[in-house]
Amino acid sequence: MILALESSCDETAVAAFDPGRGLVGEWVHSQIALHGRHGGVVPDLATREHLRNFPSLLAQAKSEVGFAGVRTVAVTHGPGLAACLAVGVASAKALGLALRVPVVGVNHLRGHVWSPFIALHASAPGEFDARLAKLLPHLGLIVSGGNTLLFEVDRARRVKVLSSTRDDAAGEALDKGAKLLGLGYPGGPLIERLAAGGQAAAYDFPRGIGRRDELDFSFSGLKTSLRYVIEKLSPEEVRARMADLCASYQQAVVDALIRKTRGALEQGGGKYRGVGLSGGVANNRPLRAALEALADREGLPALIAEPRHTGDNAGMIAFAAWADPDGTDRSSGMELPVEPSAAL
The pTM is what? Predict the structure, then answer.
């Protein structure tokens, strides 16, 4: 069994994974309510909360599944907030010593890479390798608050980054857009909720940069465009048009993401056998629907991470440590980099 810890940002998470059964337990403490009062994540507060919550989560995990079967401790080592990551790594080291098992570091983005495959394993653990082989090479899209990138997993399960964002991540753009509109934190879900009652064609926001064959993302221009629109409206007009503003802004983000994903599929020349979506913003329903529609048009299966595995979670860290052992770091000192984010 693999015991995993995740503390890259504002979620304290523990999970236990049994290769023969799947995830046998997941325990998460969310800090959204705390950071919502400050309009965003406060690193010092997040670090304090990790220190406070890891002991109780680990005690709960030990009580519910036991640690006797643990053979490896896996921990997120980056990218993320340095102090938050340090709490997780220190806790993992302590567990490794106490349980007399090796400790491995897992890149947070590799966790997102493999998260869409967790359900595939859970449905038939003994058939996972054979079923996975039929889905490789795989094209994946990670969309979160801090990262937006396209990657591929080849037949040997090697991960290669195809493109990333040149400035803001998609989730960051949604959160910043929500702040410009006077909404709360986290902004993405609030924009999605308000957008459901608006017209996506009401405002023509930019869809990113580059020619059709350029795969890099850019969302800073979108944010600036929203600011210019708001400056031309009175506060009353902004409130009256809030649903349309949210719908149009959200649609621009979704269109940019799907456009680049379509471009990657075209450049692949038909080699991909599946297309995936993961990361915190993968919870966005219009984005999920658009990715599924794209996959359907291309005649490919869509693998989308389950909602509980889209945000920061330890389940994906445990699964990645098992599914992609070449992507783990087993150095005894655990002196592991947290940047650059695209270095998987």
Answer: 0.89
